[in-house]
Structures are given as C-alpha cells and as structure tokens.
Amino acid sequence: MTTMEHRRDEQLEPGSYAWWCQLATQVRGATLTEYNVPSCVETVRVGIEVGRYFGYTITPQPVTLMIATREWDEFVAEHGYVPEARQYGWSLGTHGGNIDSGGNAWGGHLAGLAPGGVYLDLSADQFDRPAKGLRVTGPMCAAGIDLEQLARGIVLESPDGTVIYRATATDDQAWRRFPAWTKRASVIRRCAGQAIRALTR
User: Fold this and answer.
1) CATH class assigned to 17-200
2) Side-chain half-sphere of 82: how many Cα atoms within 13 Å?
3) Structure confidence at residue 2 (pLDDT)
4) Whether the predicted pLDDT of 102 surpasses 60
5) CA distances from 158 to 62, 161, 175 (A)
6) SS3 3
7) What residues form DSSP beta bridges with 134?
8) Residue 108: other Cβ atoms inside 10 A
C-alpha cells in the first residue's frame, strides 16, 4: 500500500506498481533540488512530465488529508472525538480552500492518479513530523484505487504501521490558479529531466 524500497540498480517493468513507486521517489527527490518541502503542486507537475516521457498520463487530483499517529487514530475510532491530550498522539490535515491574497499559499493538497488505478501522493513527506511521532519519509502509493474509491475516501498506513493516512478526493480547483501550477516551466522540466535520468540509467 505504501512506497516500496528498491535497489537503485534494480530494473522494474515500466507501468508496474513497483515502477510507479520508484518513479514517485525519484520525482520527489528531483523536485526537492529546486523547491521547498511544501511543494505538492510542483511535485505533481514534475510527475506529469516524467510520466509523459514514458508514455503515461498522471491525472492531478486534489484531496483532503488527515494524517495521524496510530494512537490518535485509534482513540478517535474508539471514543468518537478528537483527543485534547497529546499523550494520545498527533494529527495533521488539509481541507482545501482559496489561494491567499499574496498568491503564495493554497490550503489544499494535490496528489495524482496514474494508469492502472495507482494513487500517488508524491509529496506526502511534507507532513513528516518526527518530533510528534508522525514519520512520513517519502511518497505514499497505493494500487487498485479509482476516482470513485478516492471520492469515498481511502486509508493507507506507513511501512512501519505507526502512521495512518486518510485521503478523500475533492473538486477544489483553486490550485489551477496557483503560481506553482502556472509558472516556472523551465524549472519543472529540469527537475523532470533529473528524475528521468535516474529512472533510465
């Protein structure tokens, strides 16, 4: 359900789930050479370019997120309300919204859907909060996910099982007006080229 680990020299079949997970890791790494950690829109743009190079279409998909420690998630499931005491863990979420007046921030989160029902949150690591027990060290990937399922909501977990990741598709289109989506095409192409080289060498 989550990002898979592979040797850098391991050859994977393009279009396979394992290959998409590897693409996600390379795309995120390349994006971070030019952009700050909170860069979901830019990372999806890079992913789209890389996917296109290999003949695949990644469809951008805005989502709302709730990412929590397992303790927090289990407390809410059992008691039906959000705990105030931090001894029960932590959570972070995004709920969409308009771009701020300066055009520099959007309150949502952008993920992607790849062919074959592969869900890609290419920048899930921007929610990594190790001091809070929230360890999200790379992209989140899941197979067998279509838009209908995503609209109902999906639940993933980190490889070590300590973090619960909930995503639900939204129709928030404010990100399309965000400068991160509309500008700096040359930088996006440079990041994409770096990821492509890593995937083809």
Assistant:
1) alpha beta
2) 7
3) 43
4) no
5) 21, 5, 27
6) coil
7) 129
8) 22
Q: State the average pLDDT over residues 133-153.
A: 93
| Residue 103: Cβ within 10 Å count | 11
For 134, other C-beta atoms within 10 Å of its C-beta total 21
| Structural tokens at position 180 | 């991160």
**Residue 52 CB neighbour total at 10 angstroms:** 12
Residues making up the chain, counted from first to last:
201
Measured between alpha carbons, how far is 123 from 155 in angstroms, rounded to an integer?
Answer: 17
Token pair listed for 128: 């990594």
Domain coordinates of the chain in residue numbers?
A: 17-200
Question: Which residue in this structure is represented by tokens 């279509």?
Answer: 146
Could you give the CA distance from residue 135 to residue 38 in angstroms, rounded to a whole number?
16
- For the record, the structure tokens of 43 come out as 């990372």
Q: In sequence order, what are the residues at sequence separation of 6 or more whose Cβ sits closer than 8 angstroms to the Cβ of residue 140?
A: 2, 3, 119, 120, 121, 124, 156, 165
To the question of pTM greater than 0.90 for the whole model, the response is no
Provide the token pair at 172.
Answer: 């928030």
Asked if 93 contacts 65 with a C-beta cutoff of 8 angstroms, the reply is: yes
Cα dihedral 180, 115, 121, 7 in deg (nearest 10): -110
Residue 4 pLDDT grade (very low, low, confident, very high; cuts 50, 70, 90): very low
Give the closest residue to 153 by CA, choosing from 142, 171, 169: 169
